[in-house]
Amino acid sequence: MALIVLLGLGLAGYSAWLLEFFVQTGVSPTEQPVWDLFYAQPVFPVATAIGGLAFLLTGPALMRLAPARWSGRLTSVSVSAFGIVLMVYAGVPETVVTPNLLSAAVAVGALSLVFWWPPGWRACAVGCLAAVLVAWALVVVSTISGHLEGVFTRVQLVVHAAQVVIGGAYVLQTPVPVSGRKMSVAGAMLRSNRHRK
Question: If residue 133 lies in a helix (H) or strand (E), which one and from where to where?
Fold first, then answer.
């Protein structure tokens, strides 16, 4: 339950940019990158930093769910790394490299899921990875061209948020054994098959 609360808090902080449709910012949602909101109103960097802290704390909590092998550990580390970079960016928004570090953390997290999620969910992980890479490429192209950067940075945040929602759905449906430690779907299926024999 704590894991879902942390994911929800992280998602809420990361999605604070949606407030731009309700408060006056002076930032163009089509031409200015979403991170320009940090200079418009203090609520944006504060909410983002809180979201980053939540993601940082989500990483260790995920260790209890992810399998004890490199792919599962990489998922946990990438979520915490995403949170750290998000907090740094909220505090120092002029850092040019940070948006790419955020994208890299999300891409690594999606890639790690491909290696340990069970088959049905693995297809979701592959879809998330493809969407993350396409959104990242569109942001890079729009930044270089100087057109529609606002649109594509916002699309990128929606893609990242969708991945968090899918990850939360996976956590919610993963069975909890009597010991209190969550099992993967594959582990729960194996356990169920053993009891039938």
Answer: helix 119-145
